[in-house]
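This part of the workshop introduces the protein records we will be handling. The structure tokens are whole numbers drawn from a learned vocabulary of backbone shapes. The record below serves as our worked example for the rest of this section.

===
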Amino acid sequence: MFSPCPEDRIPDLSAQVDFEEIARLLTTHAFAWDIERALEFALFRTYAIPSISGLLARTGEFERRAEKRYDDTELLLSEPMENGLDSPRGRAAIGRINEMHGCYRIPNDDMLYVLGTFVLEPIRWLDRFGRRPMTAQEKEAWTNYYRGLGARMGIAGTPDDLAGFAAMSAAYERRHMRYAPSNRAVGDATLDLLLGFYLPRRLFGLGRPVALSLMDGPLLDAMGFAPPPGWLRRSVLSAMRLRARLLRLLPRRRRPRLISARPRRGYPQGYEIAGLGVWPGVRGCPRNTAKG
């Protein structure tokens, strides 16, 4: 029997009321691979901010345990997305995020900027490389989901809409995006990790300029990454656009692609939300400090 594509439900949902369901369908069905890649590249925008990369470098988590740090971040963000912001697992994951952030004096502006990358980068990626861009309704729901996440994380000053996030992000980058050694250190560790998902280490030298071709000039400068050759950048972007055209010819996803269900080398027996991340007094998280 023919089963309807879950993505087709989205136009009947409300971006103001059903934003969690819309965001979940976008992430697990409509654009599962693309949104995951977009959020990976969103990490580099946060590393291009010295106050953010500096904190990450001081903990040593990305340089010593890059895969665990990546897995924990992805899982903690996926649990609320896949199960609901106020579901038991969603609440547990957000609580764990807040517990870790409470170890450090993280400026609200930095938290708000990181939240903005989660909003903006998947939309921008799909505009460039997706089989279709998000619709206006989907963009509104996507923004509302992350506004809800930001509220539960205690982030103040969250913009009301997508345009507000874009303006906030642009102004913040003008003030703060610049090169620092910590940007490069954390970025190199993460880039090696991501390349390792697809390539043997001996081929990293070939894969690295391909990945850098997907980053814009100001980001490359702030990270201290050498720009790839122009011909390679053009070839990579052309290949991504060709992929988008081919995707339009393929069947759409009917079963959800759940990040939380993916086997992981660091968690061969599965994971508990309470065991994710770093802890006060161990693994680089200092004792008796508070977010200010």
